[in-house]
Amino acid sequence: MARASSSSSSRTSGEGAWGEGEGPPIPYRRGPLQYSPAVLCFCGNKAARWISWSDENPRRRYYTCIRRRAGGCRYWFWAEEPHPVFIQELLIDLRNAVWAARRRNRELLNQLGDAAVMVEEHKEEVRALRAEMDAIANQKEGTDATRDTICRLEKELVVYKLLVKCCVVVLVVVFLKKWLFN
């Protein structure tokens, strides 16, 4: 068994004990109690095996009491020796790249959500503008029909005026004939 330590390591299956809520860069393949042979803590229970993703001990497994945070014993031991410095640096770089990709993915998903909300808002604006445009088009159609009626009536008025003038001329001619020839 490796040496005991009390350094703070990251242990969780991704729910918030991490620096920025990043979680482990890769998901656990097995639960914390799915290993053998069993290692017992001071309480006599099977100790949980977690993976540290701290800068000091990236991807290094350790055992701790499953109930440590809820009043269990203070059992805590490394399950593995530290990795060589090159491997540690490589693991840290890979972990940071995964975390950066996750952050970027979250940002993009947030932007996508904002864009979807904006699209819905603009759809409402477009619907309102289309309704207004349709109302204006209907008014224009009504105005065009009224304009056509006015033009037709003006033409009829011109014809009626011409007819009245012709009638007046005919009447004047008839009265003049009667007056002059009687």
Automatic annotation (TrEMBL):
<feature type="transmembrane region" description="Helical">
    <location>
        <begin position="162"/>
        <end position="181"/>
    </location>
</feature>
<feature type="domain" description="GRF-type">
    <location>
        <begin position="41"/>
        <end position="82"/>
    </location>
</feature>
<keyword id="KW-0812">Transmembrane</keyword>
<keyword id="KW-0862">Zinc</keyword>
<feature type="compositionally biased region" description="Low complexity">
    <location>
        <begin position="1"/>
        <end position="10"/>
    </location>
</feature>
<keyword id="KW-0472">Membrane</keyword>
<dbReference type="GO" id="GO:0008270">
    <property type="term" value="F:zinc ion binding"/>
</dbReference>
<protein>
    <recommendedName>
        <fullName>GRF-type domain-containing protein</fullName>
    </recommendedName>
</protein>
<feature type="coiled-coil region">
    <location>
        <begin position="105"/>
        <end position="139"/>
    </location>
</feature>
<keyword id="KW-0863">Zinc-finger</keyword>
<dbReference type="InterPro" id="IPR010666">
    <property type="entry name" value="Znf_GRF"/>
</dbReference>
<keyword id="KW-1133">Transmembrane helix</keyword>
<feature type="region of interest" description="Disordered">
    <location>
        <begin position="1"/>
        <end position="23"/>
    </location>
</feature>
<keyword id="KW-0175">Coiled coil</keyword>
<keyword id="KW-0479">Metal-binding</keyword>
